[in-house]
């Protein structure tokens, strides 16, 4: 094939591909808003479930499928898969649908549903234990809106592309310099954009790896919050770093913690406490015998969260509660001073 003919064919194909890229796409008009309700667990219940909705939801549009994932654990952070969970979905018009299902491995559970086209607004999803011997619930709201479509005729873009292709073919046939200029105008920016995306991809992965090397043992949520990356981005790069042999991870309590590949896993220290529970013990060490109200105001948490974590710390033997008149005060035990702190 003659060089000029080869350049001509490549240029026409390139211009047609460029014209197709101008075809309007449906804009993603959906947004996601979640409002969590912390269950009141201040009363003593023998069988209590904690239902946590996971954060990694994709924005959806009316008519598409919504995937809602949650995890079910008990007060001792053990996954629960033997208790059915009842999901109740209420659409913006007040219509309700219910689904009862059991969690699968490690207490994870997934609900799939599709909001009908034309029904937009807030969908309320309630999750409760579908068993009279168990208590526990949680709720979120998802906002679904319609899609705006650019109605510019598709045929018009093909016509424009055909005209440009004809003009380019004429120019290439007359001079090879024109073909080189065309590449600089159209093909090079496209090539540069692809390379830039690859560079940014590697940059984010290197950022995550450097953070783990400097902070071995950090858990998933901590890495995401400190590096300000999305769930999808972080999950992808952590998986690639593990596959490529740069990092390793293991599950500790309810957290998955990450370490450099050359570092040995630290020895198990026995009882696992959450970051918030360790913070509460540190506060109690600095302030003798605080009340629950003083703890929740100092840490900026709700009464339900404070009550729940103090109850866990009491069960594990790190805290004792004593009545002082009408007040209930909390004291550190010898186990918390020698072990957790």
Main attributes of the structure:
Immunoglobulin-like, 341 residues, three-stranded antiparallel sheet, 41% helix, Arc Repressor Mutant, subunit A, four-stranded antiparallel sheet, extended, 11 strands
What does this structure look like?
This protein is α+β, with helices and mostly antiparallel strands and 341 residues long. It has 4 domains: 3-25 and 151-200, no CATH class; 49-140, Immunoglobulins (Immunoglobulin-like); 204-260, Arc Repressor Mutant, subunit A (Orthogonal Bundle); 275-340, Arc Repressor Mutant, subunit A (Orthogonal Bundle). It is built from 9 helices and 11 strands. It has helices spanning 3-21, 154-174, 176-214, 220-227, 231-243, 275-286, 292-299, 303-315, 334-340, and strands spanning 49-53, 66-74, 85-90, 96-101, 108-113, 121-129, 137-144, 247-252, 255-260, 319-324, 327-332. The strands form 4 sheets. The protein has a 4-stranded antiparallel β-sheet, with no helix packed on it. A hairpin with a 2-residue loop joins strand 8 (247-252) and strand 9 (255-260). Helix 2 (154-174) packs across helix 3 (176-214). The chain is extended.
